[in-house]
Amino acid sequence: MAESEPPRKKPRPIVRIFIFLISHSLLASVICCTAGVLALSLLPVLAKNTYISENALVPGSASPMLSSQDVSEANRFVKEITSLNSKPTSGIEIPRLIAHHIVDLGAEVSYHKFHPELKKFHPLHFFSSPDPGIIHENYSCSLFGVNTVGIIRAPRGDGKEAIVLVTPYNSIKINLGEALSLGIAYSVFSLLTRVTWLAKDIIWLAADSRYGEYASVAAWLRDYHTPLFGGLGKLNGEMCHESSILFESKTRPIMETEISDVFRRAGTMAAALVINVADRNEGVEKDTLSIYAEASNGQMPNLDLINVVNFLAVRGQGLHVKVEKLQSLLDSKWVQTLGELFVSLGKVARSLNPQWKFGISVAEYIEGTATLASSLYYQALGVPTGPHGAFRDYQVDAITLEISPKVSLNNKVSQNEFLQQGGRLVEGVIRSVNNLLEKFHQSFFLYLLTSPSKFVSVGVYMIAFALLVAPLPLVAASLYSDANKSDSTLEKDKHASCTASVDEPGITFRSWKWLHAAKTVLVVHLWGGVVTLLPYFICQIPNCTPTTSILLWVLLSVFSLIILHFTLGSTFSLVNVSQPQKEDWALLKSVTISASFIGLCLMSVINFATAEIGALLIVPMCLMATPLKLDVKARTLRAFTRAACNMIWLFVGLPLAAYIVIKGTFEGFGSVNVGDFWNWVESLWAWNSATYLYICMIHLPCWVLCVHILLHFC
């Protein structure tokens, strides 16, 4: 008797579940995408109250030490600065005045001369910091700014750590708000020169923002972290032969402290605060503190730093704290409808179990959605919202504090009250950070804000992204499996009807024909790299308007795609593939979806917000892509609906069209100009935003491949 065959081993449960999901990929896609959008809309409801994770911070544990005398001295300091506006100025009078006041306090002081950096497109800047040699090309003896740096050496410290205060101001024409921000910093700096509890050095950077707030701070940070031998005057001596009276060493006859161009440093930066005062009266009911935290490529400071500022501002100084909101969503009807729906669901949940605290009020949901959308947008944009962004490039936690007074500050009494309020806030934050024994690490670095006191952590918002991209590998595997099954059926029919020997090479190459689809996808993504570099050459054209630049970019991109198609995109095979198989488009779609999935996952590591917004556009576009020829042949309502949806998603998925639609929706289509898209993209590459790479190398190639699938002649 023949030996019985051993029983086949059953696959593991996880494998059976995966096989089931692949066989029902359509249903799984609908469920996952719907759940992903629902989870994203639920984020304001799921937001938690903020809390201080680091016990050593203990904000508000000590009484403020800033006295009325410190405030009066700061007020006189502000008057001296504003009085310089009535005199002809060359931009060095205010830095010299600040330096002399710092010397009078007994602290170390130095000047920092920097030159404006031209924001030019350079492909290597996406992968490395600007080369100092490149920056030197922009130097000019007549174009420079002067930062004033004061340093207090901590009496209880070892000089290894420091806290930075930054006050940007225009040294040519300073306004009242900038003068008041300098006054707040001066009052705190004056206090800290006398205290004995300092364990970290204090650096006050009075940043000359005549060429931009970010540029002055970034230049100082670059030199702070770059070893320099000798003074900055020696560094620029080869270019600027004429001497500058500002950078000649000056010694006060009364003080032994020398003011020179020697670059002075303190310890490793533990945190940084950028202080701004809004020189306007918005008619608010109480003094307002706006917090700006977004840095480059979606980087955020440790949440504890924001929590400390929020705690001290609300409970210590009675300020109204706010973060940026997307104003257009505050009056949105569909957001209000969603809020009402979630309120009803919350009532049902509480009726089932009173302990379930699900749901918030409609006003809170609208406010949270507008704040969440703003946080998501600015993180996805990848452009810093203030000079604090320069610190995150060196892994220093920093935020910008913008204080808006409720009344005019032209009289002395209101100025004194405002300076005391702002000074005590900054003093409290410095005192909390001074207590740290190590860098911020306890709280979150990956989060989205729905209000100054509520946040969504990475463990919650990643669920929405995971649900959105989950159908991609399932559909890709299902398409590949179906294409292989069709091939197997064709081979069996051919083998049964043919008595000749089996064409083994034909079977081998037919089973590997997915390589042609992979080659097509690879060529299109290589084209995406070409599109990424084209603006470098367009920027070399003199007097080119934004509209002309965007048209040139489009024409050169189309031309380069045609060239790559004829050079690298031709089909090569050792078998007869003169007649395209019906399954070719399915294999192409499978590889396209796989490439989209990989690109979105990689982008989620670099900048989650960009990946989240990209998934909302790419996932439906890739999943629904089907040749229009098949839909036309089917002549059913479902086929025509799918074709219409494909055309809509393709229009919305095109980056230029998406930009026009979004801007027109929020700002009105009358203000939309095609050249604005070039300006927007130019700002992305000027700030080395990874979103620019995502648009050109992931999103745009996927859009082109979806167009190719729609126009496939099957």
From TrEMBL:
Keyword field: Membrane, Transmembrane, Transmembrane helix
Chain segments annotated as transmembrane: 17-43, 458-480, 520-538, 550-575, 587-607, 613-632, 644-662, 692-711
Keyword Secreted appears in the UniProt entry: no
InterPro entries: Gaa1 (IPR007246)
GO-annotated cellular components: GPI-anchor transamidase complex
GO annotation (BP), single: attachment of GPI anchor to protein
Keyword Membrane listed: yes
PANTHER family reported in the protein's UniProt record: GLYCOSYLPHOSPHATIDYLINOSITOL ANCHOR ATTACHMENT 1 PROTEIN (PTHR13304)
Protein name, per record: Glycosylphosphatidylinositol anchor attachment 1 protein
Species assigned in the record: Davidia involucrata (Dove tree)
